[in-house]
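Bit of a strange request maybe. I'm writing a small parser for structure token strings and I need a real example to test against, not something I typed by hand. Could someone generate the tokens for this chain?
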Amino acid sequence: MKRTLFISFDLIRQGEIEKSLAIASILGFLKNDRQLQDKMSFDHLSINMLKYGGQAQPTDFDKNLSVFDLDKFDFIAISAYIWNEYLLNDFIKHLRTLGFSGKIILGGYQITYSDQTALQFQYPDTQIFVIGYAEQSLKKLFTSTATTTVPLFLNEPVNFSEIPSAYLTNEIIVPSGTSMLRLETKRGCPYSCSFCAHRNLTQNKVLKHSLDKVFSEISFITERKVKRVNILDPIFNADKEYLEVMREINRTNLTTTFTLQSRLENIRGTEGTKFLDLCSSGNYHLEFGLQTADITEAENINRRNNLQQIDEAFNQLRERNISYEVSLIYGLPGQTIDSFKRSIDFVQSRGCKTIKAYPLMLLRGTDLYHKKEKWDIKEETTGEFAIPVVTSSNSFTRHDWEQMNDIAKKLTPHDGQ
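Reply from user aminoacidic:
Good idea to test on real output. This should exercise your parser:
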């Protein structure tokens, strides 16, 4: 029997379940696959980066790693995200000094949206790269009898009907009265904003969990009396089934608050009215990623906001007294201090009381990442986790960015600032 250790670098805030839904989905799938049960064993180590801050070094995790005999594992699979990018190669080197001699597997956003040739140079001691969703790719790796030639790039499509619930299989243990957990009804986004990697850049599809699975998880959440559920769908109100999900939530759940990432322009017509009716009769908090109210800036990021529809949506939210917040981005191509202020004024004047602003990050594989020279975009690593953010372009200086950053900090405080 071969052994695999999954190491995930997570951002776990107070009151949250320690195992992320992403890693639990992978583990639940692999552990419940009959072909693997006699061939593989799986362990998991979650490292909460929020306990270490952005200056963590690989040796800081020795206490976490000491519970494992690393030389006994055939594979170590590591999550690669923008918040742990700065230490990945040094961490892999450190695993070697601690006795691990098997194969390193890397997956996550930093891997999925990178060029395959570049990956071999960026991560020289990685033998296997998982491109896209990991469930089926890892199953193929672990069930294959062929000799593995490295580097190996895996990108197997996911069949959602074969992925069991991380909650119903007890891959994530949820005590009664848990403060918060996460749920997903679909992965991917139907829109094509040039800064965003949520739209599944490798397949350009939205993949949906079955309603039976989602409804079973809603029932489970109700039984456990969970206080808050963040639904991870990039755009919750963007298909034909989200109203059915809300009806089931309202039918079974009286106390849990559900947070939905939604799109303002989709609140229109008959479906929009039904959406608002369900929000009014249930416990919901809506999150809208407007990003900018400036038409030119929106076009520059391939997000053509319809301000008339947005205005009407704000009116209806205000009239119904529905809980919501709006997020903006500063550092956008074509943006200035004045245009950033106008976006804030636009949202505030519509009655929004909770506004959050985030610095622009250029995520690998996105259209904006590849076109940064067009806008003369410059990046710097600032804040925790050495994450690069855009700090100047041909429309704003580094000094301008500092002013926008100060303005953002005076808005609603939030994690990440």
